Amino acid sequence: MALIHPPAHKIHPRPLPKWRWLPQFFINPLSIYSEQAFESLYARSEAFGIDTLSINDPAGIKHVLLDNMANYERPVVLARLFRPAMGRGVFLAEGTEWRRQRRMLAPLFSPAAINDLIPHFQTAGEQMLSRLGQGGNVRLSEVFHRAALDAVLKALFSLKAEGHHADIPVMVRQYLGGAGRPNPLDGMARTEDDFGWAQASRKAFSRKWTAMVDGVIAERRTAGGDQAHARGDLLDLLLSARDPQTGEGLTDAEIRDQCSTMLAAGFETTSRMLFWASYLLSLDTAEQDRLRAEIAAFTPDRVTRMEDLAHWPRLRNTLLEALRFYPPAAYVTRRAMGADVIDGHQISAGTEIWISPFVLHRHRKFWDQPTAFMPDRFAGVNAPWTTMEGYLPFGAGPRICIGASFAMVEGQILLAHLLSRFTVTATDNQPVLPVFRVTTVPDRDPLFRLTQALPAA
Ligand code: HEM
Fold it and tell me: What are the tens digits of pLDDT across the range 86-137?
């Protein structure tokens, strides 16, 4: 059986000279790589006066994200891009403040809490199907954006993504395609507030986003909790959280920033994973048929606990393979706060560390046939994002994505709903290539044809 190799950017025979890669980097960093990037373990470069070490070596990655993590913080550019949507929530917090926030949020993402969320993911899946009706030609990126928003609003805030909430994906898409794109001034900035005059559109987004999140919280406070949340939702948890030392609760601003963070981190990434998985399945229709048979044998309405997802191993492996090819978070970056040495590479305060799941996931040292779509490579591997060398879709170490299981469970339930009803085919044979815009998005927004699937034989 011939393997399918999804379309990919040209790999340059040699590293591009700086005058070529720097402008190209701002157009699409995923298109600048040379053969060497997929073979080497370390690469040193410099841009805008910032010394940068790119690491593919698992030992070096572990050093930065775990063993000596206290020496590495999120770089300025991340704060410039994410602060407007995430405020002072856990994603951008550092040190003791980060530890406090992470501890406080952990119960919301425990396996027991995720089991409680399953009915919400199912409702989001059913609503997605009812919006799709008989199918036809659709933009799956919009379908999944809406469904993933629905899932996160239900799961975290006990709310429906109806009426004005439907504007949220539009706001996010506009931000990622406009003000939220990194630019050369971000490269030159040494503090979050440098070139403040050029940040007007980010501040405008921040005002709009904050007002929207305030509205969501106010609405949820009025509507009250949801009986389906045995453990309470995110807002209940934040409202009742107390600092064990002082007994103080969180301020309204802290509550809002945490909600903003979960909303921003929680639905864009997951909907991209679903888009790319569907794209891969439109290229490999035989695998798509196998998934449909797997889902027909255990229909989505039968899932009540995470363990039930074991009935869909191929579906899980397809999502994992989509995360390998197109990791929504294509870069995990850090800035050194003090001197260090990583496998002989000298690090000084200010050195930036770039770890690219996009590069790692196609690296020739870690993968057999890295350019081929082979979901079976994950067969039988439990939580490969913590156990497989070179596989880092959710980051690593104590700051690993808090929502990894949330995303995987939600992703399987939403995609199972779609495939249980429809066959997904491309409407054209033009390639779709990944572009990095804070998350990994398609270079164009293709239409897919959804046709009613025949019952599995
Ligand atoms: C496929 C979906 C997702 C992907 C690929 C993804 C990826 C990541 C990655 C790579 C990181 C680590 C960043 C770093 O170390 O610099 C991260 C952190 C984070 N993610 Fe996710 N994520 C996903 C879904 C979610 C969901 C559903 C939520 C919440 C509902 C979430 C909330 C967060 C938060 C709060 C952090 C910061 C954790 C900390 O700093 O302690 N993510 N995510």
Answer: 999 999 999 999 998 898 888 889 999 899 889 989 999 999 999 999 999 9
Beta pairing class for 50-55 and 352-355: parallel
- The Cα 98–Cα 91 span in angstroms is 8
Q: Which residues line ligand 1 (CB under 6 A)?
A: 90-91, 102, 261-262, 265-266, 269-270, 273, 328-329, 332, 393-395, 399, 401-403, 406-407
Q: What distance in angstroms lies between residue 427's CA and the mean position of ligand 1's atoms?
A: 32
Tokens of 378: 């994950």
Report residue 332: phi and psi, to 5°.
-120, 115
| First and final C-alpha spacing in the chain | 22
> pLDDT tens for residues 345-402?
999 999 999 999 999 999 999 999 999 999 999 999 999 999 999 999 999 999 999 9
Q: Is residue 401 marked as binding?
A: yes
Q: Which fold has domain 18-39+74-329+361-452?
A: Cytochrome p450 (1.10.630)
291: phi then psi, degrees, rounded to nearest 5? -65, -40
Taking each helix axis from N to C terminus, what angle separates 200-223 and 252-283, rounded to the nearest 10 degrees? 100
CA distance to 330, 389, 408, per residue, from 323 (Å):
10, 15, 10
3-state secondary structure of 156: helix
Percentage with pLDDT > 90 across the chain? 68
| Alpha carbons 215 and 289: distance in angstroms, whole number | 43
> Residues with Cβ < 8 Å from 51, sequence gap 6 or more?
44, 348, 350, 351, 352
Q: Tokens representing 444?
A: 């164009």
Both tokens of residue 195? 């070139």
